[in-house]
Amino acid sequence: MTSVTATAYAAPAPKAPLERTTIERRDLREHDVLIDIAYAGICHSDIHQAREEWGRGSFPMVPGHEIAGVVSEVGPGVTKYAVGDRVGVGCFVDSCRECEQCQAGLEQYCQVGGMTGTYNDTDRQGEKTYGGYSTHIVVDENYVLRIPEGLSLDVAAPLLCAGITLYSPLAHWNAGPGKKVAILGVGGLGHMGIRIAHAMGAEVTALSQSLRKKEDALRLGADHYYATSDPETFSALAGSFDLIVNTVSAVLDLDAYLSLLKVDGSMVVVGAPENASSLNLFSLIGARRSLSGSSIGGIRETQEMLDFCAEHGFGAEIEVINADRINEAYERVMASDVRYRFVIDIASLRD
Prior knowledge:
ADH_Zn_CS; Rossmann fold; 19 strands; 27% strand; Quinone Oxidoreductase, Chain A, domain 1; single chain; six-stranded parallel β-sheet; 23% helix; alpha/beta; alcohol dehydrogenase (NADP+) activity; seven-stranded mixed β-sheet
């Protein structure tokens, strides 16, 4: 096939409003699939990167790594997918495939050059990557996920980042029956953490700044809800949790939250603040606590997560928007004014 001209929304420069444009997708390589994108989620990391809050970006930038759509063409060597298959693409589209981590199915921790980001990156052939705020994308079949029939494409799209970002640490730290798990932050990531931890069988506590989201959190599966703006919360919950998953992308008083862990408890950070954090090491030493981080999941685990969500009958809580509202959506994300993930209807880009 010849290359595809895709309609897209791109940030032309750092901090500039996104605008409608066109991009060229590469010719299909032997193991590539062409995907007609149906929906793309808006992740807070899209905003961080478009505004160069995580370091220097590559512009024009087409964000988007929560992608759901349908295969429309396949390369000659493709064996995993066929035209018409419902598929997704997450945060990365390649890795070295040969290092210890890639061989173990942990491509997100690739040791040779790192994973190739779905956007704001350069692939291993030297071509710039563009993300899911576009009508089409071309991806190697080995980095494509199958979306189960039990999930509609719109609610499935955010699972490719928000879902796996929470599923991976909850699975790795063995959330389940008999475990007390706190999800810190009830937003695009946190709401998925509540749902997944509940489905795994853990006793789930939602921690959010105010009581504003209490009803939602309990509906999503939280057993308990506390406002972190209330100092009494920290005395009431001291030493309570086996696991805290911190989804907040802002600098917090880590010592205060670490005090909520039991002996041998772990706090796992998945939200990435723009600025550095600090802590008193005695918060760890005093109760053999751990402070860890986690980054999305590999292809195998992401597929496991999609199947888990379909089996339990849930996707993300979404608000679907047309592409011409992306800039408005960015501002609303920054104001925490979304319940709980914006998803772009890519059909609005085809008009």
